[in-house]
Design a protein that fits this description.
Blueprint: H1 9-30, H2 32-49, H3 53-64, H4 68-102, H5 113-121, H6 126-134, E1 137-143, H7 152-170, H8 175-193, H9 205-239, E2 250-254, H10 268-296, H11 304-310, H12 317-341, H13 354-370, H14 374-377, H15 380-391, E3 398-403, H16 404-417, H17 428-440, H18 454-469, E4 474-480, H19 485-497, E5 505-510, H20 513-517, H21 519-527, H22 530-536, E6 539-545, H23 547-553, H24 555-576, E7 579-585, H25 597-602, E8 612-618, H26 620-626, H27 629-648, H28 656-677, H29 683-690, H30 693-697, H31 720-730, H32 734-737, H33 740-749, H34 753-762, H35 764-779, H36 782-792, H37 798-819, H38 829-856, H39 862-879
Helix pairs in contact: 1-2, 1-4, 1-8, 2-3, 2-38, 3-38, 4-7, 4-38, 4-39, 5-9, 5-27, 7-8, 9-10, 9-15, 9-27, 10-12, 10-15, 10-18, 11-12, 12-13, 13-15, 16-18, 16-19, 17-19, 21-24, 23-24, 28-33, 33-37, 34-35, 35-37, 36-37, 36-38, 38-39
Length: 883
Amino acid sequence: MEELSGSDSALRDDIRELGDLLGATLREQGGQALFDTVERVRGLAKAARAGSEDAAEELERSLAELPPEQVAPVARAFSQFLNLANIAEQHHRVRRSREWARDPEAAALFGSLAEAIPRLATQLEPEQLHATVCNLDINLVLTAHPTEVQRRTMLQKYNRIAALLDDRDRYGQTPTEVNETRRTLKREITAAWHTDEIRRRRPTPQDEARWGLAVVEQTLWNAVPRYLRNLDQALREHTHRPLPLDCAPVTFATWMGGDRDGNPNVTHRVTRDVALLARWMAAHLYERDIQQLISALTVQICDDDLRAEVGGEAWEPYRVVLKRLRARLRQTQRWAEAKLQGGRVPEGEILTDIEELRQPLLCCYYSLQRVGAGIVAEGELLDTIRRVSCFGLTLLPIDIRQHADRHTETLDAITRALGLGGYAEWDEATRQQWLFAELASPRPLIPHGFEPESEVREVLNTLYTLEEIGPESVGAYIISHASVPSDILAVELLLRACGLTHPPRVVPLFETRDTLAAADQTMAVLFESSWYRERIAGRQEIMIGYSDSTKDAGHLTSVWTLFQAQERLVALARQQRVDLTLFHGRGGSIGRGGGPTHSAILAQPPGSVDGTLRVTEQGEVIQAKFGLPGIALRNLELYTTAVLEASLQPPEPPPPRWREIMDRLDACAMAAYRDTVKERPEFIEYFRTATPIEEIAQLTIGSRPAKRTPDAMTVDSLRAIPWVFAWTQTRLMLPAWLGVGEALEEAIAEGLASELQEMFQNWPFFEALLDMVEMVLAKGEPSVTLLYEQTLVPEQYREIGAELRARFQRTRAAVLTVTGHEAPLADFPVVRRAVEVRNPYVDPLNLLQVELLRRARSSDDEALRRALQIVINGIAAGMRNTG
């Protein structure tokens, strides 16, 4: 929201109207008593925020004394208001973008194609700008990490509310139409009130995949052609060259149905079903497009090529071509349905290659151009051709992710069956020697009659499944917790042993501080191998993880480690003449690598974004970035312009002195973080009692368990998402700032304040780091955390909380000293205002959560558990992220 400025009266009006409609719904559906209670709580919360101690005490007492039957309705009321406020804000972003575009006096919106392309065109030759745009390779990977607490049915209702607000703004409605829109809004809000926002069961991986495909169907399917039209227009205007028809600078992939790292629910059968589901959905969407084209393309004149294709007697030749294509798309749908249901596969031609879909459309397009009907070709037909370039036959190719240990176990079982001993017991040198020898050997690896245990069998069955579903359905094979060359070679050998004719690219994921620091050494060993260089054919993809590196060593250490790792990998790739793609495993929260897209990309080290970028879009971030058409369009443009600018005008490398300072900050920050989180045995008990971590683990928001192993809870065993989620709920936001304050304080005490300020002003990396920490500090509320502690934490652990709150305040002071701001978010007034508006509505939910946790931890009451889930949802809506 930082690009929005000026009057926000329209936003205030929308929030007020939605709040009034919600209030009317509460009164009508819940009764006057519920309405009065909610209004009283809201008034007390605002007064408390304004500084009234009496109101704060009365608010706390009122919520603690709330009768059990009123807890859930009150929580739902505040939760629903926060979700409605989020809708209004998202819609307002679209509104302001449109107002900006309509104003002839306004400069183009920063980061838009209309702003960036003309600016870059004044500094570059047209040929260079055009070629760079056409060679962009930006792949957004939709993942189903359990951070989207909203049910899909609720998201659909909220999207309809946003569409109603958009219609009212856009079409100049009459008073009668305005009243009808208001009634429809009330209808949707009432329906939402009577809809259970809590999932009754944990979603399956197939459910998550359907949710991902729904994002394509509902927004991206239309947003992508609009985005490509805008890009084509900008290129024509400023380079005098069009965007090629087969060019798709932004494409999509998914981990939904493929991410089996620590998720026993993702099996080879699940991956197969999700791939078939995507094939069916793709054929369905294209068939819908083709049906519209059949209705529209009644043109009779055509060129000789098309006439030869359809025959001389065809009256409406374009319809003939398109009907043939429609028949194959329908047959593809029937084929996918039969495969999914285990029935007999129908005979007939299905689409198996993207050119079988693209060529008939291009034949029609070029014919219309040649006979002078190009304006017809530039409509829905061009949009469909552009979709083919972006989405292919599968919409979202599936990345497979598996833990490195699973491959070690599989090869260990094979070597033991072959009488070679235990692979898992060999040292790294022995493993590499054997792996390279086997990769060069033509003999089969897996012995005849091999009957391994279930986990090993599942690894092999997954690889066999990749051959079955075909290369267009498969993206990359990600090795999580990769640390040594044998982790990569093991997968290459298993792919060959399972007979894959088109093996996917194998991508190591380096995600802890130590493995990131050694990533270039790991890859250097592989690049020295002629076999490996031939296998990668000059292109290497490497994934770098933000979440586990932050949980392992703290936020400041994580981002600096990632920065340096990228620098070393870029240098190595250039030395070895390998084209490198870096895959960023970013989450939604600052503690997991999240933050504004544009500034994050421009803050990457020089050369690391060289026309290519992969990045995960996780959980609630997918809805936030791509849930509404206008927002999706904006984010597609932001990704394009940021990658374009980072490629053409990369930042200067930091001077040695700044590196020296960062190394000192890194050492201090990591020590402060690890001393607290990992070296204090009592810390995990404080965390377990002061936050709803155990209750979050029971949420039905994702198919994956909260912990990698069923052992006792430790920071290392927890996944990064619930780790961040829990601290976000209590509003301490610890993972994003712990260690930063100590590092800055020490540097300031040593007289480095002016140099730190210079770094903030002139180094995009350091500026982005402190901007993100400052944003977290603006959202943090240590006084709220104190309420959890006083009620829930045993006395012997409370000194930890007091220490953390003091460190929060010291971190805030140190960061503001460096940024020069009077208060957090001074440079982002719209974001600051959004935080301030939400606080009085989130505060009561935190108080309710404290009370519910107190009750629930001494009771097995199902009603308490569900009320707690509602409160967790509401706080997540108010904080605008979970993990």
